[in-house]
Amino acid sequence: MIEYLKELVDRMNSKTLANLKRLVFSKKGGIGIIMAIILSSVYNYHKWSSRTISNGCPRVPHTLPFFGLTKVYRKDSKAFCEEWHAKLGPVFRAHLFGKEVTVVSGHYVREVFLNKHFDFIKGIVKVFDTRLLTDNGSREDFPPEDLREIITKYLTPKLNIYTRRLIKQLKQDVENILGKTSPVIRSYKEQLINAIKPVVEYRLSEARRNPDWKKPTDVLQDLLENSKPPAHMDLMDYLVCIITILIFVALHSTIENTTVLLYRILENPEIMDELDLEQREVIEQEGLDTNCGSELFTRDILKKFTKLDSVCRETFRMKNQYITLPHEYDGKVPLTLSNGAVINPGDDVLIDVWTNHRYKKETTSVKDADEFRPFRFVNQNKQSTKVGEDYLFFGMGRHACPGRWFAMQEIQAITAILVRECKFIPKGPIIFPTAERSPIPTGRCIIQRK
Question: Is this entry keyworded Metal-binding (predicted)?
Fold first, then answer.
C-alpha cells in the first residue's frame, strides 16, 4: 500500500497536488473523503466477512468487525463447537480472538500435530507468554528442544526416585497442613538464588577436589553436569531460569488438574470407595502390610491403580477445553490439508479439542460421550498419559507434553494419599464450569482424617 501511494504521488504534478490539497482541507472535501473511506471500509468488510469459503475452507459468517465471533464463542463454547462442526465439518475458519483462524478437529488434527512446520510455542506465546511473566530469557537462550531434553533425560527416567520424595513430602503436608490455613509463600528469584548458590558452590567444589564424592541424584546435579549456559548468561542465572520454568509449568498444571479431579470424586462419592478398595487389593496382591503408611506408594504400585488412572483420563477428557492449543504455521509455502483447506505461512490453527474428546460419528466413537463414566478406560489400553486423536489433553505428536508422566505421577500420588488418609464429604452441589475461561469447579466440602 505504501509503495502504491508513493508511486501515485510521484505521478502527480504540482498543480494536481495543489488542487488535491485545497479539496482535502476544505470542509466539504474533508467530510466527503472521510465518508468515502468509511463506506469503502464497510463495503470491503461486509464483502469479506460474508464469504462462505476461504482458501478452500468453509467459513463461519460474522457481522461484528474486530470482535468477530469471540463473544458468541465465549457465551456458549460447547454450543459453538457443536453447531459449526455439524454445519461445516471438522475443518472450518472463524474470526476468533481478533483474527481469522482455522479450527481443526477429527483425524485432521494429525496433519497439524505431526507437521514440523506447525509451532505450538509460537502459537501459545501469542496467548500467554510464560517467559515474559517469569522473566526467564528468550527462546534463543532456552530453546524448547533443550527443555524437552532436560525433562526426558533427567526427570522421567528417574520417576521412581522422585516418587519416593514426593510421597514423603505429601505425607508431611497431610500431617502439617490439613485443617490449617496454608501460608502464602512469596517466591522471588533472589531468594531462589540465595537458596541454591551455596549448594551449587559446594557441589562444584566437591567435584573438583574429591574423586570419591557421592553425587546427589536430582535435576540440579544433572543440569550442573550436562547443561551449558549461553555465553552472555551467568551459571546461577541460567540454573534459576530453568528451575523457575519447570516449577511454574509443573505447579500451574498439577494444581489445576488435581483440583478438577478431586471435584469429580466429590461429585461422585462412590468413586472414593472403589479407589480405596483398589488400593487394598493391590497392596494385598503385592504382599505388603496394609498397616504401612503412604510411603508404600512407589511408582510401581501407583501404576497398578488402573481405576485411578481411568478416573484421571475420563476427568481430563471431560474438562471444559474447547477451541485451544494454538499453532502457528511457519512453513515457507502454503500448505493444503487433505480436505482442501489452505494454510498460508503465518496463519494460526487452533484445535477443537471438545469435538475430538466426544467423537460421535467417527469409527472411534466414545459411547455416552457426554456422560462422566469414571471407569470407562479400565483394561482398554488407554492410560491417562497415552495421547491420540480422541485424547488431546497432553497434545499430540512432536509437541505432546514431555512431562506428562511426571505430572500424572504427582496427580495420582496426591489423590492416592488423600483416598488412603482422608474422607471427602460434599456440602451442597458441585458445579463444573461450561465456559472456556475458567476450568475450576466450585462447591463446598469437608475433608476429614480417617
Answer: yes
